[in-house]
Amino acid sequence: MDIKRRLLFAAVAAMAGLGGPAGQAHAAFPEKPIRVIVPYVGGGSTDLLARLLGDKMGEKLGQPVVVHNQPGGGGAIGTAAVARAEPDGYTLVMATNGTHSINPSLYASLPYDAVKDFAPVSLVAAVPLVLVVPAQSPVRQMSELQAYGQSRPGRSLNYGSAGVGSSGHLASEMLKSTLGFEGAHVPYKGDGQALVDLIAGRLDFSFANMPATMSHVRAGTLRPLAVSTGQRSGMLPDVPTVAQAGFPMLEVNPWYGFLAPAGTPPGVIRTLNEAVAAALADPAVRERMEQVGAQPLGTSPEDFARIIAEDTAKFAKVIEASGAKAE
User: Fold this and answer.
1) Any idea what DSSP says for residue 228?
2) Based on the domain organization, do 198 and 282 belong to the same domain?
3) Residue 140 domain flag
4) Same domain, 260 and 220
């Protein structure tokens, strides 16, 4: 074979390779920075986890992972932006059970379909809710809260939450139904404001996000009765889970995880999932997550999809029973 024929053969083989199996032309993903949309304001748990994990994921991927806050509509605005993004792996959302398991039942209409418009990448963490009462309360454990509520017929126990449809609101609705007492919901614009009124004795109890409660628990102004997740928190090792307190039906696991737009190639999802797993395996990342009350939890995309579906069905029943609605 002469030199010209050899060169022609090599060129044809190279061109054929571009259309070869598994999309070899895309094998270099990622080739540019990846954007993570946080659909809430900066400084909260969602934002903190996105930035912490994004930095470490960038090391694994060889490209920066840049976090953008796009709040509004109970997380709907930023989440919808990702649903409309190109399905190429370069735009992700740091989703929560609020955006994907609560909002579908809470809002009459959403600008996205929580299932059809997204491809799960990985669950990354659960942040327990802590059932707390004021330090001056006579209640010291969940069974006493049940007796306390049932002993005051005609008078509701007041409870606060971070807002209508928040995990704390719905967990409290489950609590009062399970424990058999009347409860009056007082919504706030965040757990912090609710806890101020709880400490002052204007509320009787609250299911609040662990990062928001810890400084008050350490200061002795709030008394923790139980954590909502399936295992005890390293931040409160002496506080039982709701199951250990005798009420397993009250388990609630507020979660955080990465999702991509529907149609993102499976190979790209796999690469992103591996980057999340590598970040979660880093001891410094895990230590920082645990310091803020987050339990590191990596999953496969399939397991994450199952968790979303199970939570959606669970919260749909609670929302219907409570009558909670958001505009």
Assistant:
1) S
2) no
3) yes
4) no
CB 70 within 8 A of CB 78: yes
Averaged pLDDT for residues 243-265? 94
Distance CA 247, CA 4 (A): 79
Give the DSSP H/E element, type plus range, for residue 129.
strand 129-134
Residues ≥6 apart with Cβ < 8 Å to 248:
242
Residue 74 zone, left/alpha/beta (φ > 0; ψ -120 to 50; rest): left
Same domain, 111 and 180: no
Single-letter amino acid code for the residue at 176:
K
Please tell me whether residues 82 and 43 are part of one structural domain: yes
pTM for the whole structure: 0.79
Q: Which three-class secondary structure state does DSSP give residue 193?
A: helix
| Tokens (6 digits) for 289 | 């997550």
Cα→Cα distances 20→26, 268, 271, Å? 11, 17, 19
Domain assignment present for residue 270? The answer is: yes
* 78 plus 162 within the same structural domain: no
Last residue of a domain, one of 232, 250, 268: 250
Same domain, 214 and 282: no
Asked if 130 and 95 count as a contact pair (C-beta separation under 8 A), the reply is: no
**Cα distances (angstroms) measured from residue 94 to each of 74, 82, 177, 229:** 14, 10, 31, 20
Which residues form the domain of 91? 32-127+254-322
133-142 tens-digit pLDDT: 999 999 999 9
pLDDT tens profile 43-92? 778 888 999 999 999 999 999 999 999 988 888 999 999 999 999 999 99
